[in-house]
């Protein structure tokens, strides 16, 4: 009796599961017409879609939510929420119609051969949280409208041909945690509005042509863990506010035109693990607090005009980390001249 009763119960549970699956199927919406039109316009702008013809199944008479390469939808309304076409060897420009995909949350075009400008309609993608456009040939300025992406948490524009300056509208990217704009041709100064991105954890802008000072406002970025501005044309002093981000563990300001005294503020960065100040024009002694920061594992202050005795430190550093400063002496370099020390 208990046995047959169990079977009956299982059968009805099974039936309910089947029914709910069926009703779920029937409420699944096909691709929204606006989104399909935008995707087809995008395809029209692709002049070459690689040896594997990845966009071949993007066809007018099929449902874009069903089996279109790299496309995913919210099945409750048929809106496209996800496009991942990374590494597909696509060539062409990104058309302004991309801005019609208003429900998009993730956009990944990384590692293709996209060229032309990034259309300013990108700012219409208000729900975008992830954007990876790295390793393409996208040129022109970064559009001001990028600041409208208030939900954006991850932005990667690494290795393109963006020129012009960093838009001041970056300050409106209030959810941004990761900002990678390195290996472009960006010029002009770092806008002080950058200090208004409260969530920022990583800022990488190396290998550009940025000029001017590091703005004081960078000290407002209290969640900042890594700052990499190496190989630009930055000058001036390191602002004393830069010790406010208490999580800062990586600081790379190498190959710029920073001058003046070795920034004493670095001695207060208690979480610092990696410090690279090489190839600048710092001219002073090295403050002993810096070499004795508890977590410091890598330092490179080579090729400046530092002088005097390298302060006593416990962690062993490579001599090449201090080289190219003719006035520096003591371990790990040669002993100081005893008659002058
Ligand atoms: C990249 O696109 C350009 C046209 O924009 C084309 O001339 C070039 O051959 C493409 N390169 C590759 C590797 O597909
Ligand atoms: C954006 O996301 C919110 C929250 O998930 C949602 O309610 C809204 O409908 C989305 N907007 C669009 C245009 O899809
Ligand atoms: C973004 O694309 C690059 C390739 O250009 C890749 O190395 C990186 O991991 C991607 N980001 C994420 C979070 O997957
Ligand atoms: C950011 O820093 C600047 C200069 O250090 C300061 O005047 C400003 O009040 C700060 N803003 C915020 C939002 O903390
Ligand atoms: C430090 O900076 C110099 C000059 O930019 C570079 O050659 C060296 O590789 C850097 N070291 C590390 C570990 O980043
Ligand atoms: C380092 O921190 C101490 C204590 O908070 C402070 O008195 C000192 O002025 C700071 N030094 C620098 C260079 O910011
Ligand atoms: C320090 O930087 C110099 C370039 O300025 C480089 O030649 C040297 O190898 C670096 N040292 C280490 C340990 O990375
Ligand atoms: C050490 O100092 C003496 C006296 O000032 C000077 O004659 C000598 O050349 C110095 N040696 C080196 C290696 O700098």
UniProtKB/TrEMBL annotation:
InterPro entries given in the database record: Leu-rich_rpt (IPR001611), Leu-rich_rpt_typical-subtyp (IPR003591), LRR_dom_sf (IPR032675), LRR_N_plant-typ (IPR013210), LRR_R13L4/SHOC2-like (IPR055414)
- Leader sequence range is 1-30
The reply on keyword Transmembrane helix is yes
Keywords of the record: Cell membrane, Glycoprotein, Leucine-rich repeat, Membrane, Receptor, Repeat, Signal, Transmembrane, Transmembrane helix
Q: Name one GO cellular component term.
A: plasma membrane
Identify its membrane topology class. Answer: Single-pass type I membrane protein
The yes or no answer to whether the keyword Lipoprotein is present is no
Q: Per its record, how is this protein called by name?
A: Leucine-rich repeat-containing N-terminal plant-type domain-containing protein
